[in-house]
Prior knowledge:
493 residues; alpha/beta; 14 strands; flat
Amino acid sequence: xxxxxxxxxxxxxxxxxxxxxxxxxxxxxxxxxxxxxxxxxxxxxxxxxxxxxxxxxxxxxxxxxxxxxxxxxxxxxxxxxxxxxxxxxxxxxxxxxxxxxxxxxxxxxxxxxxxxxxxxxxxxxxxxxxxxxxxxxxxxxxxxxxxxxxxxxxxxxxxxxxxxxxxxxxxxxxxxxxxxxxxxxxxxxxxxxxxxxxxxxxxxxxxxxxxxxxxxxxxxxxxxxxxxxxxxxxxxxxxxxxxxxxxxxxxxxxxxxxxxxxxxxxxxxxxxxxxxxxxxxxxxxxxxxxxxxxxxxxxxxxxxxxxxxxxxxxxxxxxxxxxxxxxxxxxxxxxxxxxxxxxxxxxxxxxxxxxxxxxxxxxxxxxxxxxxxxxxxxxxxxxxxxxxxxxxxxxxxxxxxxxxxxxxxxxxxxxxxxxxxxxxxxxxxxxxxxxxxxxxxxxxxxxxxxxxxxxxxxxxxxxxxxxxxxxxxxxxxxxxxxxxxxxxxxxxx
Length: 493
């Protein structure tokens, strides 16, 4: 499903260059952090299996009590040393002699420490020297083969652009040109530069900088990033330009992207801990995507496991609800409604129908109130108990919703006759993560009717708190509290 701009926002036409980038096919990217994590696990498992395999084949059986913990401890130490030597980085995986040399030094140090430990504790009679030497030599050969295979895979992904982050530069002129040259020199394998956005329209900001087109103003970047994937925004502005930087952040903080301020324009020198790096380019972290890399994997697994378990356990309730709806009134069992999803993408969510077919309100122009005659008797019960939301488990399986997250709102929903995004500044920032079936606002009593600006502001504030403090444990807590708080909300009709 293509991404679309938010309903009600003034949608202006982007530049021809921006439209061309949006229309081009996008190769699905791979998280470098996930690649590094998987590589570490696979490497440690291979070393452990080799060590135990040699033990099983050569050593007299009956001594696993000594060998197994030593193998596991050695593999853990090897991983620590490999990380300390900075061999578990995407940039390192692309090298040959650099990563293999450092890795072999680390593996030799592990075996040396193991040998010294065996001698120090006078455990020579418990461990086979043939096993120790075989594991060292075999482990070195295995590590070399694994790293060469990993390098080939990383190079293939790099060539296909799957490890490069889709990046735009905010800023222009000579300063942006210097940044682009730095990207070409040291970060071209990590960054796929799409173009530039700059509010200035004068000689200081030409339409083309170092071969890259200016795609529009900073405000245009919001719509651009909603219609095509953008992973990283590099800001080419001096620290002294506080107002320009603040204006830029005020506009872009609603997007689910990483925002970095390039340090190449700063005359101040900070300690290395103050910087992070994109390739070899020093940057200051200004904003982070709320859920990314391994956290994204953990949340995906959490969503699928919880949704599958809920469908199995709650299937009798869902079947009984479907039967009750059909018995009471004519019409379909399910009701679909268009709402805003991640990054303002338009999605259709499923619900059990709670209104009479002739009074269905697909756009939620009029909110349901207490004693609303449009709602059936079954509908009142399933809305009060949130049973009407259970079909959204299928949205979770489709990847459109999470189990926990900010609740998606209908496009035309209003508070005090104002659309939600008109009533609350920064409203769309809640779409930096996938919407959820339940959320922090709901377990704190902010569910149901939102007829006043205060109510929608409370929801949004709770949603933003959830985004800023997200963790899997936070999700588990909200999920656990949802059925407990289910009946404590007075304005759910």
